[in-house]
Amino acid sequence: MLKGMKNQPLDQYIEDYALEIPSAVALNFYGKEITYYELNKLVIIFSNYLQSIGIKKGDVVALYLQNCPQYIIAFYGAQRVGAIVGPCNPMFKEWELSYQLQDLEAKLIVTSVDLYPILHNIKDETMLQEIILIDYVDYLPKNPYPPFPEKIQSVEFKGTTLWQQIFNKEVFQRECERVAVNMTEDVAMIIYTSGTTGVPKGAMLTYKNSEYQAYVTAKYNDFSVGDKLLNVMPIFHIAGKLIGMMTPFIAGATSLLLMRFSPQEYLQTIEAYKPNFLTTTVPMNISMLEHPLMNSTDFSTIKENIAISFGIQLTEQISNDWQEIAGFPLLESGYGMTETHTLNSMTPKDQIKYGVNGRPTKGTTIKIVDATDFSKELTSNKRGMILLKGPSVFKGYKGREQETAHSFYGDFFVTGDMGLFDEDGFLVFLGRATELIKSSGYNVYPEEVEKMLEQHEFIKEVAVVGIPDKVRGESSKAFIVLKEGANPTEEMIISWAKKKMAAYKYPREVEFIMTLPKTNSGKVLRRILKDQKR
């Protein structure tokens, strides 16, 4: 049974469980098991190393990694010394990574041998003083199962510190005291999210934000010691982080971690390791339903499957199709965002309803207000702006005091989302109030994509909008005005963009036009372009 909140950082929970249940498995990575005692020891070693090189409270440690044990060890090792963690999307190309590392003012980064070449090209643009290089083989069993998706390679790069060098040194094995933190005031991590201008901003989340949201999620879903939570969601993302490396450790459970999703490997993991809880996206469930292993997989240990409507909305029919084979329904994950540490509403297991986003979790208040007058709270089935307050709401945007102030109405966070409460008190998310594009669950900022496309030698002007995509929910489409004499094909532009930005960002469609619609002041009217597509 889950114990109460202790008002302490999550790494302290790991240490507590290392004493209470030392041999219990905290982490399983392709068959490599790490106990709570071992995980705590690894966290302490890494925190000792950080202190030895001068990383102190308030410094930023960036993590540019795929899902792996090193990410979790580095995350909690950094927080143990009071450092701020800055997760970086492993899909980032040079310019995206450079922007975030500069904005973070990161002093140290942990990355992998496969991603280092991207970092190498931009590291001199940043404030980085130390680069730690990991190799996935360090925490893989001799025969990983399911088969590991990455090619295993061991490479050394000049000017970097190898992860294993740290853990092989006896000087870092000693016990050290954790740096004291203020749970509600000190920043634990900075995760980048959207803004009204389309420029990525760092959302500062505190230690209390994380403890509270991890606890509420564990409590709501009845997680406890001995449970196994299977996670393939990327842990640099707030949802994957909450489910894959926070909630399990506040409950004394096991995180079954996969690097990336494939229906075969996911079903093999269920069969081999018998998890109790699944967190998926709806497209994942659909792809598993279409896989031949689905009918032979043993789902008998599964208590619950939270399904997130990334790309495809969860419907009763999809849930019924799943339940017919797996034996249990799919539950809509709820509503949330990075600034609120996500999952601020959840679906009651005894009141399953589809096409909605659950009810506010304990301690969280959500209200719908008139989008033009926040003082006017709306009644059931009236559409308006979603405002939210609670212990999981972030501290503010890094270095952007004015934008932080504009993001709050009193003590309510102004989400920028439209929604309503139905007659049963369920929240219904209706979409973004801004021009933000939501692709495969990721935020895509039109202005950011446009800035990169404008660097192409043939492009004079460009505007990017979101278009419907059956797989991703939305994709980017670029409307381009070419320079005089230029004659590229749509395929040439898309191919160029694909090399310059993350897979969820680059435009999947391109249309060449003579002029962009604009206001008298010269602002591009993306709305008109989006309406033309309809």
Distinctive features:
534 residues; alpha/beta; Rossmann fold; Luciferase, domain 3; GMP Synthetase, Chain A, domain 3; 3 domains; seven-stranded mixed β-sheet; six-stranded antiparallel β-sheet; 28 strands
Report on this model:
By secondary structure, the chain is α/β, with parallel strands linked by helices. It folds into three domains: 10-260, ANL, N-terminal domain (Rossmann fold); 357-432, Luciferase, domain 3, CATH 2.30.38; 437-533, ANL, C-terminal domain (GMP Synthetase, Chain A, domain 3), CATH 3.30.300.30. The chain is 28% helix and 25% strand. The strands form seven sheets. Strands 2-1-11-10-12-13-14 form a seven-stranded mixed sheet, sandwiched between helices. Strands 17, 18, 19, 21, 22 and 23 form a six-stranded antiparallel sheet that branches. It has a five-stranded parallel sheet with strand order 4-3-5-6-7. β3 (60-64), α3 (69-80) and β4 (84-87) form a beta-alpha-beta unit. The longest helix has 17 residues, at 36-52. The termini are far apart.
